[in-house]
Structure formats: structure tokens, C-alpha cells
Amino acid sequence: MKRIIQLTVNGEQAEVAVTPNRTLLQVLREDLGLTGAKHGCGLGDCGACTVILDGKPVNSCLVLAVQANGSEVLTIEGLAENGKLHPLQQAFVEKGAIQCGFCSPGMILSAKALLDENPKPTEHEIRMAISGNLCRCTGYQKIVEAVQAAADSKALQGGDS
Amino acid sequence: MLLPRFEYHEPTTLEEALKLLSELGGNAKVLAGGTDLLVRMKQKIDRPAHVISVARIPGLNEIVPRNGHGISVGAAATAASLSRHELLWDRFTPLATAASRLGSPLVRNRATIGGNLVNARPAADMPPACMVLDATVKLKSRSNERDVPIGEFFRGPGETVMEPNELMVSINMQTPAPWTGGAYIKLASRKTLEISLVNVAALLTLQSPDGPIVDAKIALGAVAPMPVRAYAAEEVLIASQPSEALFQKAGQTGVGMCSPITDHRGTMEYRCMMIEVLTKRCLSMALESARSWKPLR
């Protein structure tokens, strides 16, 4: 039996009919066309499916869509405003933190969740915050530098994120 | 990976949830964070016909201090919320630490203490911490309620004393005595997203900051089919003045209480060596914490 769920995705209301066994990841990708969140392992071990659910970064592959009824979801597609990249996205591009790009949406969202809570993180805090997101390409160094650069950037110090 | 089909229930009160469990019992699984259950369902290890979510039950995820005498942790409280709780860090340190080492930051935002206990994996993070803190778990069914000491809760890998119609609602602990300190160490190949090779929780109570040990609790995980209290190691410590040599002796004694296996994470021999080393280290950390005990504001 399908249920109608209502959720706010990237600031917009969405209404979807889902069977209970569909995950939030599946609904975002297949029903809403938001393919930024990726299916990596499907088991909560890689973080490629990371989205921000009610302010907290989670593995969307382990959230049932029905559990997200009434919730707010932020995906990577919701970061840029009016075509302008978020400082984190900009920093990832400038620092070379993106190689194949598969981990990047999840990585950036975990970083955003960190900076929302802790605007001046240490390197250790950055590495801990992204420790649920695996990257097979970069060795994480450029990613950490990008998060640091975004934290330092004037755009974020202004208080808007 | 696809989930098999199931009937989904989302009770909005505890009574409704318990009624569902009494009716569906053995054909239902409780869904809290989903970081264990949904993984098992995707792997086709569990195929419940019914899934009962506890996410909408009010109060189940709250952490409620009890007037300086103790704390009641809702079974649906997430590992993240435990790892950020000031009172838990201060007075129930092993539990806050264990919660902070579970899974990854993403997993911790969903995983619950109730799930970690009910799933009863031998290497789980929270059971040893709950054991040294003498926690009791409150189990409710439609017609009954009981409090089970955590030391009597586990039966074997994946097995507990819970009946199919029961729900864990809270984990309750009394505030430890003054000059008590605790610690938790998790040994794993990675710093995150890993299952323990060996984990150890310890709680020490001193007579005074420079005085002897009057109470000691040590619990180990991943070294037996269930988490174990190392009673013999604890006895070594009681009434003695803390020292490195004493902790060394306790560590050596602790090995005798364990029966680790060899698996892809490590050999039995290595685990035994680590039980000794980590017990000693955990006791040193607990001692430091006990010595810096301060009354709350």
C-alpha cells in the first residue's frame, strides 16, 4: 500500500506516493530527479548518499521515505543560490577537492553541517566531521583544505551560509 | 540495494505501539534509527512482515536527568544526542564516549542506544559502558513492565531476555558516587565506521583523590559471545592504592575472563594481548577522571 508523504526538499514542498520499503535516497533520485545524492554501498558505510535531514547529515539510504514525512531535506542541489555556488562548493572547485566527484555531494553536505555548527573548525574536527564520507580518489587532503578555506572565507564569516 | 516489502506502522503513542507489538509480536521488528535493522533487511537477514517505527512516540528520545540522583535515557535517543550531552560526559563518561565512537557522524545521527542494546552484537559499543554504569533497562509490554539490570540482559550474540511483545523504553542509571571517574576505549583498524576488535569500559571510585579504590567496574566487548564484566579483575583493584603495577595486574587478570575468537579483524592471541593493554590503559584514564571529580554547580 502506498502512502502519500509530504516533505520540503531544498525549500520546496514535495508530495510523493511511496511504498514503505522505498528509502529516502530512492525517492530523491527516482521520484524527484535529484540525483546528486549517490547510491554507494546502500548500507550506511560510505556516505555517498548523505543529505541533511531536519538539520542533521544522515545516510539517506538508511532512512525510509515514510520516515521523512513532514521533514526538511537539503540536498546538494539546494546549496547554490540563484546560480551562485555556495562557498563550500567554490572552495572544493578551487582547491582541487573533486576528482571523480562521486563522494563530493555527500562530502560537501557533511562539511556544511559542520560549519553550520562550528564555523571555525580545527583540522581534526574537519576530519572527524567527514569521517562518514569515503573518498577513493583524493586521499582527503584537498577536501580538508577546501573545508578550511571555506571556513576562512569572508562569505561565510559574514554569517550567512 | 532493495528492501523487501513489509507493512509499516507508525504509532503516535506508546500505548499504540505496545498494542501493535502484542498483536504482531513475532512477525514485527521495531524500527528506530534503522542503521542496523534496514541493513539486515537489505541483506535479507531479517524479513519482518511488519515494521513498527517508534519515531513518533513522544518522549522516547529524551535524556532526562533525575535531580542529581541519576539519569533516564530514552531508548530512542540517538548516539549523537548522547555524545553531545554535558551531564553524560561529566558523570557517565563511558557511555558518552562509547556513543561518540559508534559508526560515523552520519550513523550517529540516526542510531539509537535502544537499538545498540537490543541488537546485542558482541562487539557493540554501548553495552560495556552501560554495564560499568550499572544501568537497568525498562521493558514494557501491553500488560507488563519490568526493569532488567543490564548485566542480566544479554543472552548471546543477537540474543537478549526481551520477549517479542516487549519494547525497550529507557535506560536508567544512578549518578555514581563522588570521586568516581570512567573511561571507554575502542580498538579498531579504522578510527571510524568500524566494529571493535576489543573494547573496554571502566569505572573507578576512590575513597578520596589520593586514596584507595573503593569500587571498580570493568566490562569488555568483542571478546566473548556477549559483553562481559571482568569481576576477577575488579577484585584485584578493590581496597588497593591505584598504581600502574596494580592496573597491569588487573589487565592480566581480565584476559582470563575473556574468550575472544580469531576472525578477519584479528587473532585470538592479539585480542588477548590487547585486553591486557587496553584494560590497563582504560583504568589509568578512569583514575585521572576520578581524581578530577568536581561537584556539579
Description:
The complex is a heterodimer of chains A (161) and B (297). Chain A has 161 residues and is α+β, with helices and mostly antiparallel strands. Chain A has helices at residues 24-31, 87-95, 104-117, 123-129, 141-152, 154-157; strands at residues 3-9, 12-18, 50-53, 56-59, 72-74. Helices cover 34% and strands 16% of the residues of chain A. Chain A has a five-stranded mixed β-sheet, sandwiched between helices. Chain A starts with a strand and ends with a helix. Chain B has 297 residues and is an alpha+beta fold. In chain B, the strands form four sheets. Chain B has a five-stranded antiparallel β-sheet with strand order 4-5-10-6-7. Chain B has a four-stranded antiparallel β-sheet with strand order 11-12-13-14, with helices on both faces. A three-stranded parallel β-sheet of chain B has the order 1-3-2, covered by helices on one side. In chain B, strand 13 and strand 14 form a beta hairpin. Chain A binds chain B through residues 1, 3, 19-23, 42-45, 47, 50, 53, 56-59, 61-64, 66-67, 110, 128-129, 131-133, and chain B through 1-8, 10, 31, 33-35, 38-39, 42-43, 51, 53, 55, 80, 103-107, 109-110, 191-193.
Structure at a glance:
The complex is a heterodimer of chains A (161) and B (297). With 161 residues, chain A is an alpha+beta fold.
SSE diagram, text form:
The complex is a heterodimer of chains A (161) and B (297).
Chain A: E1 3-9, E2 12-18, H1 24-31, E3 50-53, E4 56-59, E5 72-74, H2 87-95, H3 104-117, H4 123-129, H5 141-152, H6 154-157
Parallel strand pairs in A: 1-5
Antiparallel strand pairs in A: 1-2, 3-4, 3-5
Helix pairs in contact in A: 2-5
Chain B: E1 7-9, H1 14-24, E2 28-31, H2 37-42, E3 50-53, E4 63-66, E5 70-74, H3 79-83, H4 86-91, H5 93-101, H6 105-108, H7 113-119, H8 126-132, E6 136-140, E7 145-149, E8 154-156, E9 159-160, E10 167-174, E11 180-187, E12 198-206, E13 213-221, E14 228-229, H9 231-237, H10 244-256, H11 268-291
Parallel strand pairs in B: 1-3, 2-3
Antiparallel strand pairs in B: 4-5, 5-10, 6-7, 6-10, 8-9, 11-12, 12-13, 13-14
Helix pairs in contact in B: 5-8, 9-10, 10-11
